Amino acid sequence: MSQDALRGCLSGEHVVLEPLQEEHIPALSIAVSDGELWNLWYTSAPHPDEMKAYVEQALASEQRGEALAFAVRDRRSGQIVGCTRLMSWDQTHRRIEIGHTWYAKGAQRTGINSECKLLLLTYAFETLDVIAVEFRTHWHNQRSREAITRLGAKQDGVLRNHRILKDGTIRDTVVYSIIASEWPSVKQNLKFRMRQYQDNQ
């Protein structure tokens, strides 16, 4: 993945997506402890003791040109509340995936995810000029599936027996996407949802 324009932050009204650095490890360890996200077997959130290796793996993937990881900072509190990643950029076929996303329990259902996705999708469609953005999640991660659907993504299919997880269970992966022709209406919907969150605060 080309890093030229991506090394800066992606900033919204409520969140800042900061290029992931090792300096984020302590704050991310605190964030992932809010809700003990690693205990949700269908997510990929790391245990605090694994955060250093998690960040190092993300940065190594970035160095190989495969991804760009962000730490998510809540503007209101100033706290790091999660992580997300642009990944699997297929420049030939102009597709990219948004994944490795998790948020502290206190940041869930607050509008933070909507604005993060608005920032990433805007960058993907309007700067990288992709024609499709993909999302993947565990079949059993109902909260993630509902959140992806609320974005306006459509289900493409299910990859059965797709991944063997570290606990030995086998994951069926649900694949969703937003395509370029859908982006204007998805963008409008995300902005509308952000206004609703603001009105309710």
UniProtKB/TrEMBL annotation:
GO molecular function: acyltransferase activity, transferring groups other than amino-acyl groups
UniProt KW keywords: Transferase
Domain spans labelled N-acetyltransferase: 23-171
Keyword NAD: no
PROSITE patterns assigned to the protein according to its UniProt record, in alphabetical order: GNAT
Key word Protein transport present: no
A Pfam family: Acetyltransf_3
Signal peptide: none
Protein name, as recorded: GNAT family N-acetyltransferase
